[in-house]
Amino acid sequence: MSTNHTYDAIIVGGGHNGLAAAAYLSRAGRKVLLLEKLDHAGGAAVSAQAFDGVGARLSRYSYLVSLLPQQVIDDLDLRITLARRRYSSYTPDPAAPGRALLVDNEDASSTAASFAAVGASEDEFRSFNDFYASCGKLTQALWPTMTTPLPTRSAARQLTLEAGATDAWEAMIERPIGEAITGALKHDLVRGVVLTDALIGTFARADDADLQQNICFLYHLIGGGTGDWDVPVGGMGAVSGELERSAREAGATILVSAEVTSVQPGGVVKYRHDGADHTAAAPWVLSNVAPVVLDRLRAAAAPAAPPHATRNPNHLREGAQVKVNLLLKRLPRLLDGSVSPEAAFGGTFHINETWSQLDGAYLSAAAGNVPEPLPCEIYCHSLTDPSILSPELQAAGAQTLTVFGLHVPDRLINAENNEDRRAELQAAVLRSLNSVLAEPVEELLLTDQDGRPCIETKTTLDIERAVGMPRGNIFHGGLDWPFVDDGAPLDTPAQRWGVATDDPQLLLCGSGARRGGAVSAIGGHNAARAVLESEQQPRD
To answer: What stretches of 53-121 show up as alpha helix (H) in DSSP?
Structure first.
């Protein structure tokens, strides 16, 4: 075992949040060691050549950016370009093949006509806009607090009341979001378009009492205060790559293929690298792995009485999605001849996601079945940013599709059935997609260098094995409100920044931190701020 090396901070896990923390601390003059188990940094925020011999680098696990604050981009001098999409969503009507709702951010009259085309009234269109305008008052008030010490519930509520968001607070924070959606909207398809933001990655119903769906809804709308989800030019790897560059240029030591084997009290971390065991120590250890994974690493150091970093059972919540990446010769033709494929796939393409279909899919999955039809959302990166494709693929008109299948909880997957379930889920996704197309999507798949179709499917277990997200949960567990209950302890910087564990030297800096989740770097920013604030305080 190598000799100990002393650092100011050790970061366990090299996902984008860990890289952000490393960059902030290194820029503040701290000596930082970051340890990443995989052979590359970036975690789930990476681009990959998913298909052998094919010049396409896909954002394999995470793909859009909403929650990354401009403050972080500016602080760390990140050279990142985020492209805005014209279209918000396209949703075929399963009750009338060939009819669909297209929400055009730049043409309100066109969107109104699309509402009418699916049988939604002018009042429904106005209510849809009013609903989001009301939510926007709340998100604009709360967004600036994401990179400040945590507000209390009362303080957060006061901010929103001052912004004229009294109704939105009640709808989004106090009561199940389903009540607000059904109270404001009448049309089954329109309700479903709104509800999807409450369900992505979260296995829940619209009226669940624990309000996980509300928290998910808030996080999908809060980014930038507007809820816009932008395309990272160059793919998600461009985002994590810039964070890594910023950290390295500031002096951080980043070791990949370095597997942490235990996290011990006193800031001691053991890891294996280059075939040898090593030990490092620091006053601060920041965990960018999920809290459940951190518990395992701590248990390895103290098996008799393992401590617990998890703050609540929320961190044990399962993931609930299947991810499918496809590379096509061209965009498929639609059953709806009134809309071009470029417009339909230019935003989020909803399939079989009416209100009633989403609820039926939840009930089917809760009973142990793969939903049929499977609710799906599709995103086409290459339409907005063709740079992820080789010049040859661009010239040939190739396009990428990323499909996110909802209501596929991890409880349906295990080590024994994973391969069969993966095939079953891929077939369900293709059936769902084909139900709104004028041609089978399978006929449009490109092939790799060995003649295999360019399609890959990732179950929750595949995601856990690949990037360490327990039970495939893309948020590292259940999400928390971006505020704390009145009376919650806020005595230490770690508590105030929402990154505390039961060990004062051990902080959460990833998606498992309060205000974590999605590609935001907020967890890394807040943990670094807690460290620097702690060091400025007088010692007893």
So the answer is: 70-75, 108-117
Give kind and range of the element (H or E) at residue 291.
helix 291-301
Q: How far apart are alpha carbons 521 and 80 in whole angstroms?
A: 13
Residue 471 vs residues 15, 61, 365, 468, 501: alpha-carbon distances, Å: 17, 14, 16, 9, 22
pTM: 0.96
Return d(Cα 473, Cα 324) in angstroms, integer. 16
**Minimal CA–CA distance to 378: which of 339, 462, 434?**
434
Residue 58 covered by a domain? no
Residues of the chain with pLDDT under 50: 311, 539-540
Same domain for 294 and 339?
no
Report the Cα–Cα distance between both ends of the chain, in Å, rounded: 35
Domain end call among 194, 224, 254: 224
Residue 294 contacts residue 54 (beta carbons within 8 Å): no
Q: How far is CA 190 from CA 11, 372, 515, in A?
A: 44, 20, 29
Residue 302 has what pLDDT? 76
- Show which of 224, 250, 277 is a domain's final residue: 224
pLDDT value at residue 76:
98
Which residue from 294, 293, 291 is spatially nearest to 311, judged by alpha carbons? 291
514, 408, 397, 421: which is closest to 471 by C-alpha?
A: 408
* Residue 441 CA from chain centroid, whole number: 26
Asked if 436 and 481 sit in the same domain, the reply is no
In this structure, are 423 and 296 located in the same domain? no
Does a structural domain hold residue 467?
no
Other CB atoms closer than 10 Å to residue 20's CB: what's the count? 33
Going across the sheet that includes 253-255, the strands are 253-255, 32-35, 9-12, 284-287, 506-508
- Residues sharing a CB contact under 8 Å with residue 133, sequence separation 6 or more, in sequence order: none
What's the confidence (pLDDT) of residue 223?
96
CA atoms within 13 A on the CB side of 68: 27
Q: What is the 3-state secondary structure (H, E, C) of 192-225?
A: HHHHHHHHCCCCCCCCCCCCHHHHHHHHHHHHHH
Q: Are 19 and 38 found together in one domain? A: yes
CA atoms within 13 A on the CB side of 170: 7
Instruction: Verify that 341 and 389 share a domain, yes or no.
Output: yes
Range of the domain at 146: 121-224
Residues 442 and 326 in one domain: yes
Count of domains observed in the chain: 3
Give the pair of three-digit tokens for residue 5: 């090396």
**pLDDT score at 540:** 46
Same domain, 522 and 422: no
Instruction: Please answer whether residues 111 and 126 qualify as being in contact, where contact means their C-beta atoms are separated by less than 8 angstroms.
Output: no
Distance from C-alpha of 204 to C-alpha of 359, rounded to nearest angstrom:
9
